[in-house]
Every structure is written in structure tokens, then in C-alpha cells.
Amino acid sequence: MGVIGRCISALLPDFKTEAVSLTGLRSENQDNYLIIAQGSDGQPKARWLRDGSVAEETRASWPARWIRLAVLDGMGGHTHGREIAESAVDALRRLPPCRSAFKQRRAVVDLHRNLLRQFGTGQANSPGTTLVWAEIDRLRRCCHVLNLGDSRAWLGMDDRWHPLTYDHTLAEFGYRDGRIDTSAYAAESKRSDQRLAQALGHGAWGVILDAEGHESFGFAPEIRLDATRDLSRSLQGHADLRTIDLPRGAALILATDGLWSETRCDLPPPTDLMVPGAIGEVARTAIDAGGTDNTTLVIGYFDPEPAS
């Protein structure tokens, strides 16, 4: 980062980040994460997992205005889950900032196609990975959020966690497309055996409509990402791409399903997690409570307003 970049960075609000990824009882960690943010030396740094261990590199050309956070979960029971999640992270850490949700979607579609060419087998256990990705603008204090799969994101404000994503299940897309009503959707959402309907680098099952609006319940290599404009007004809260304000004192959490899939692990109040090491305690609590899956959390937040 040059002199001008350092001056710009000094004028932008400080943004804190932290990540934890635990293997748990699995034989390997198929989760991954990515943080691109200013390091303690003032230089932009990328941090992620390589072969299950934390890796870091300086990204000298990365603009100080932007922060990138992402979590990924290689599909359990499929081949090369760790490898495809790591390959996705490798592509994301080389990608320049996406300054709009539209550019974010286009980048993910391109990434999906590249991963499909690299890893796709055409079989049911072909590799795939989830992705929740937040592109944070320090200048405007806003965030573009994209979801693909069943990892999740929450915004912590006013002592509450507000969900930003909805798992990509057949029930979710059935509800969006009007094939099931609100009561059926609520009942299906409570089931613990819901099948993941699509994944990055894998494709989709039963969520792609043809030109006439008919759904095929077979496998398709495409993926579906709904923006707010693609959905009716009553369903826009279910969009897979959105831009939100991220004010001082609000926290953003991204997590893989090890946090909730096998045991209930409620998130503490947002202010309790804006303390170094707190998300590590949450991950360990999920595993100690009986969770057997890999568990990964990333948190990011602007420093609260100084007391007057």
C-alpha cells in the first residue's frame, strides 16, 4: 500500500475481524474461510485455510476501502470437499473488490462454472461447497451479502441477531415459487433432514425453472441466485443477494452449519461476541454440546462510536 493508500485508510473507520474453524470429530476440516482486511502492520492481508492450516499473504494492491469476508463448507459425504472449498477461496482471494451485488453474482456464476469444469464428475457425489460472502464498503458503511447453500449470515443490532440468509432447500425454493404455502413452508423448515438443493461447483436439484416456468426435479449444472428484484415484495427478505447498512456497533457473523445442524447452539448477544476470542468459545460450545461437524465462524464489525 502506497502513501496515498495509507492516508485513505487512516480516514476510514476501523473494522475488526476474527475467524475460527474447528475440525471437531471429523477426520478432516472441509470448511474454509477468507478474510481480506487491513493487518496490524497497516498492509492489506488475506487469511484463509490451506490444507487445514491458517495461511496469510499480503495483498498490496487491495484497496483500503474494501473488506472481504466469506465462509465455505465442502459438502460432507462427497468427494474432495476440502479441495473444492479451498479452490473457491483461492479464486476469491485473487478477485478484485466487487462494488455491487450484481458484480458479486456475476463473479460467483463464473466461479461456479470454473469449479464445475475442474471438479465436476456428473455423479450424485460430485464435489460442491456452500458460500456466504460479504463485501464490505468501509467508506459507505454498507455490505453486499451473497448466499449459496446452507451456511448462514446474521446481522447483530439492538441486542438481537437478524438472519440475512435462508438455506437453499427444496422447501425454500418451493415457497419462493409459490408451490407450497406459508404453513407448509414453516413445517418443512423445522425438519432436520432437509436436503441441500444446490452448491457451488456442484449444481442444483429441483430449483431451476425452464423458459416456460416449469421446474425440473432432476439435476441441473446451473445455480440459482435470487436478487430482491427477482422476488415478490413479500418474499424480498429471502433474496440471496442484498445490500445492507452496517453501522458502528453492529456485528456481522458468517457461519457454517456445524454451529446448528446437530445441536442447538444459540448465539450470545452481539456485544458479547465483539470481544477477541468470543467466537472461538461459541464454536467450542457447539462441539462440546455434541456437534460432530466442522464448525467455522467469521465476525466483522466497525468499532462502536466513542463515548462522548
Features:
single chain; 308 residues; alpha+beta; Phosphatase 2c, domain 1; seven-stranded antiparallel sheet; five-stranded antiparallel sheet; 7 helices; 23% helix
Reported by name, the CATH topology is Phosphatase 2c, domain 1
In sequence order, what are the helices and strands, one letter per element?
A: HEEEEEHHEEEEHHEEEEEHHE
Number of helices: 7
Taken as a percent bin, the fraction of beta residues is 25-35%
Which consecutive residue ranges, at least 5 long each, have pLDDT under 50? none
Q: How many distinct beta strands? A: 15
Structure, described:
It is an enzyme of class 3 (hydrolase). Residues 16-302 form the PPM-type phosphatase domain. Pfam families: PP2C_2. One of its GO terms (molecular function) is protein serine/threonine phosphatase activity. It is a single chain. The protein is α+β, with helices and mostly antiparallel strands and 308 residues long. The protein has one domain (3-166, 239-302): PPM-type phosphatase domain (Phosphatase 2c, domain 1, 4-Layer Sandwich). It has helices spanning 3-11, 81-94, 101-119, 170-176, 182-189, 270-273, 278-288, and strands spanning 15-22, 31-38, 44-50, 53-58, 66-73, 131-137, 142-148, 152-157, 160-163, 198-199, 203-205, 219-220, 241-245, 251-255, 295-302. The strands form three sheets. A seven-stranded antiparallel sheet has the order 4-3-2-5-6-7-13, with helices on one face. The longest helix is centred in the middle third of the chain and has 19 residues, at 101-119. The protein is globular and about 55 Å long. The mean pLDDT is 89.
